[in-house]
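User: I want to check something. If I give you two sequences, will you return the structure for each one separately, not as a complex?

Assistant: Yes, each is folded on its own. Here is the first sequence with its structure:
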Amino acid sequence: MKKIKQIKKYIALAIMSVLLITMLMPATASAYSSDSELWDSYTMPSKRQKERLLDNAELLSSSEKDALLQSLNFMSNKHSSNIAILTVYDHSGSIQDFADDYFDYNGFQADFNGSGILFMLSMSTREWAISTHGSAAYAFTDYGQEKLMDDMLPYLSDGDYYEAFDTFVNVADRYFTLYEQGTPYDVDYKDTSPAALFRAFLICLLIGFGVALIPLILMKMDLTSVHKNLNAAGYQIHNGIHMTLHTDTYLRSSTSRTPIADNSSRSGGGGGSSMHISSSGSSHGGSHGHF
């Protein structure tokens, strides 16, 4: 009888354990589930559905989220273009397609005549993606996106996600400003700001100083064995002075001509923005890679 009671007790404990695990599983799954669908349907809404920052991968503290969202909202309104960030644990399909679809099916095209840029991170595959649309596609050229990632990747690799996202916002502010001034950041962009000109002047000054200093150092090294003479006797020739007649005879003349290449006829490196079509039929710019 005692053994039967113990068996019943073990069965009851087992049932309670199974029920407890079953109750906890949805909460755990929701925290680490695949972020394969972050939009309600595959239709283009007439209103933006999400905030400009969605940190599903929980990479940021609450204070960092607040500060970053404030910056994103300010810069978006300043430049009349949505600037958004998305982080996920996982995603389905191509990360570029996912970023495009997130932008389209969450209504980011509903603001500012469709202009906007989304930066996305997926932590399971350690991938990043940029999706641009409207005017933002021309503000963020292929070359500009490459330079943007040069600035962001060191922070992403070190796990300093807030600094990476803050860099993204600051570079976006610069690129949009240049685009609004009619000089988008591209392969042929020349920075003529006072700070850039001053840096160029300092570099030229240092290079010129170095070029002038090297021959002086070499000349000084050659003179290390030379000593001062007390009189002119050491410089006199004691065999007398012998002068001979020297004439130059003109024989012929010739002229050599070499054509100078016309730089205007050269085909330089390509610039601009590469475009592709998303599943919604919209035209997007963008790029993607690993960190």
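And separately, the second sequence with its own structure:
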Amino acid sequence: MRAVIQRTHLPATVKVEEKIVGQIEKGLIVYLGIEPLDNNVDISWLANKIVNMRIFGDDDGKINLSVRDIGGEILLISQFTLFASTKKGNRPSFLKSAKPEFANEMYENFKSHLHSQHNIKVSCGIFGADMKVKYTNDGPITIFIDSKHKE
């Protein structure tokens, strides 16, 4: 399971067919990619890492607070392209990405886990839809996390 997280202090939205389907005021944009071997251990580890990652500024301007600490939210976007392989040619291969049925199940479980286990408000896009995500990457801060390669 892979995630790219970015912080925002401004409202963020995701639209499908020109309709806003998800919105947060401040917090994290999380792009989530699922692979076939992912399981509940990956969900738990990755959700815990994201919720507790200290990437927001404190009163002294030091990057020392988590999304939970600031009362932030998460805008969760499914992103199968996080498992793209660019090894051969110029057209990425997505064979390492989970099949849609399994990926959607894991995506929904991840969303539920964030809310039920971490009490974080989560807004989402629509799995598999063509989405338009609008936000300001504050910092900018962008972090890549892989549950199989815990670095």
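Because they were folded independently, the notes below concern the second chain alone. The CA atoms of residues 57 and 90 lie 40 Å apart. Helices lie at 40-52, 100-118.
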